[in-house]
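Justification of computing resources. Each target in the renewal requires a structure prediction run like the one illustrated here; the chain below, 143 residues long, is used simply to show the kind of job we budget for.
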Amino acid sequence: MGDVLAWILATVITLPLLGFYLVYIFTVKITKKKGRAVRLAADVSTLFFMAAVYFLAIEIWGRSFLWLMIIIVLSIACFFTFIHWKARADIEIPRLARGIWRFSFMLFFIAYFGLSLRVVFSNYYRYLISQKDSGFFSGFDTL
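Resulting structure tokens:
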């Protein structure tokens, strides 16, 4: 049972879109409300996207940027708190926390796709370079 849970957790962290989709489908089946399902899926999968960005950064640069991720989320929280305080006289903590969390989802969603594209293109570039040495491009040397 523990191995299955570890496998599911590793898959959802590696592919956070799958986690988003599974939560969405599960919620739609239960509540029959698509809007609520999207919001709940975004709320739940924020952690998956954060973990995926963390591990992609380690894979790309070989070091942890957890400190930077924490600083970014805290900066977002400070900015949103200031804006909320200016817009309304009273700060509504649940509403503020929800806004911070959903903005973090959007930020880490974009970061995940950006880092994923970087990995794909860098691996493709390495593949092309390795093919150049193996003779795939050898006929183009004379052009």
